[in-house]
Amino acid sequence: MIKYLGSKRRLVPAISAIASAIESRRALDLFTGTTRVAQALKRSGAHVTAVDSATYAHVLAQAYIATDRCSVDGHELSDALADLAARPSRRGYVTTVFCETARYFHPDNGVRIDAIRDAIEEYAASPLYPVLLASLLEAADRVDSTTGLQMAYLKQWAPRALKPLELRAPALIDGPGAAVLGDALETVRSPIGEFDFAYLDPPYNQHRYFSNYHVWETLVRWDAPAHYGVACKRVDCREPTLQSPFNRRRSLAPALADVIAAVQARLLAVSYNDEAWLSLEDLVAMCERRGHVGVLSFDSKRYVGAQIGIHNPQGVKVGEVSHLRNTELIVLSGPRELVAEAMAADGREAAAVAGR
C-alpha cells in the first residue's frame, strides 16, 4: 500500500466492522484513493465499487477491486513480473525529471522505473495491465525519498531510496468489483446503482491529491508532461478546470452537501477531521437529511510532515509544529436502527445525534 496523506489505515477496522454489522453486500467507496478501505470492504465479502478522479487511484482500483484474484493466472503474473525485472535499464523521463532535476528517486532506481514502465505498455491489451502498473507504483513508493507527499523531497537521500527497486505481485482479492474513473458528484448522479453501505472520504481543505501525488499520476499516464517549479509538478496541476470544489473554502460545503444528498445507500459514512474547513455541526446538518445521525471519534497522530515543522525552499526551518495529534471522525447517517447497529459494532463510546 503506497504512502498517502489522509490514509484511513487507523479507521479501517471500525469501517469494516460497521459494514459487516449491517450485512453490507454492495458497498461504495466514492473517494477511494489508495483503495485501502475498498479493499477491506471487498475482503469482507461485499461487491465494492471504487470511484476516484485520479488516474493512479483508478489503476489501483482496477487492480485490487475490479480484478478477481481467481481470474488471474499466478504463473502468468510471475512470468510477466520476471520479464519486466529483466529489462535493461534506460534513462528516460523519470530519471531526468524525478531523479536529476528533482530528487524523488535515486537515479539507479530511476533508470529501472523508466525501463519497466516502457515495457508495461507491451501488456496494454492484457488484463494484467493494471496489476503490473500497481506493482510498479508500489515498488517505486518503497524506494522514494519523500515524507509521503510529492510536494517536495528530502535534502538527503532517505535510506530506502538507496535500496534497489523490487517488483512484487500485488495481494489481489477474491471476488468481483468495479472501478470508476470520474468526478464524485457526476458519478453518484449517474445510474451507478443502490448500495447497502457508502463510504465518503472527501478532501476538506486546500490540498489536492492530484498535485500531492503528481509523480504517480505521471507514472500511470506516461505522458511526459511539461513541468514547473522545484517539485517538477505537471503543468496541468495549474489548470483551473481541474480544480476540485472540495479544495476551495467557498465551494466545499455545497459540493459535499450535493454528494451526500445524491448517494443512494442505506447507510452513509463520511470521514472528517477537526482540521477541516467544514464544521462538524454543518456536516451533521447535511447528514440529518438522510435520517438519524451518529458520530464516532478517534484520536489520531498527525501526518509525519506536520510533525517536523515548516521549511522554506532552501530547507531552512521557518516555522514550528503547532500540534501533534488531531481527531478523526466518522459521521453515520441512515435509519435509526441501522445507525445504532453500526455504532454498536465499533465497540467504543460514541456520540449519537438525533435525526428525524
Q: How would you describe this structure in keywords?
A:
about 350 residues, alpha/beta, Rossmann fold, 2 domains, eight-stranded mixed β-sheet, two-stranded antiparallel sheet, 13 helices, 12 strands, about 35% helix, about 15% strand, disordered C terminus
How are the SSEs placed, and which strands pair?
Elements: H1 12-21, E1 26-29, H2 36-43, E2 47-52, H3 55-66, H4 74-85, H5 93-101, H6 107-120, H7 129-142, E3 177-181, H8 184-189, E4 195-200, H9 209-212, H10 214-221, E5 227-228, E6 233-234, H11 249-262, E7 265-273, H12 280-288, E8 292-301, E9 310-311, E10 317-319, E11 325-334, H13 336-346, E12 351-353
Parallel strand pairs: 1-2, 1-4, 2-3, 4-7
Antiparallel strand pairs: 5-6, 7-11, 8-11, 8-12, 9-10
Helix pairs in contact: 1-2, 1-13, 3-7, 5-6, 6-7, 11-12
Description:
By secondary structure, the protein is α/β, with parallel strands linked by helices. The chain has 2 domains: 221 residues, Vaccinia Virus protein VP39 (Rossmann fold, 3-Layer(aba) Sandwich), CATH 3.40.50.150; 99 residues. 37% of the residues lie in helices and 17% in strands. The protein is built from 13 helices and 12 strands. Strands 3-2-1-4-7-11-8-12 form an 8-stranded mixed sheet, sandwiched between helices. The chain has a two-stranded antiparallel ribbon with strand order 5-6. Strands 9-10 form a two-stranded antiparallel ribbon. α1 packs parallel to α2, α3 packs across α7 and α6 runs antiparallel to α7. It is globular and about 60 Å long. It starts with 11 loop residues before the first helix and ends with a strand. The C terminus is likely disordered.
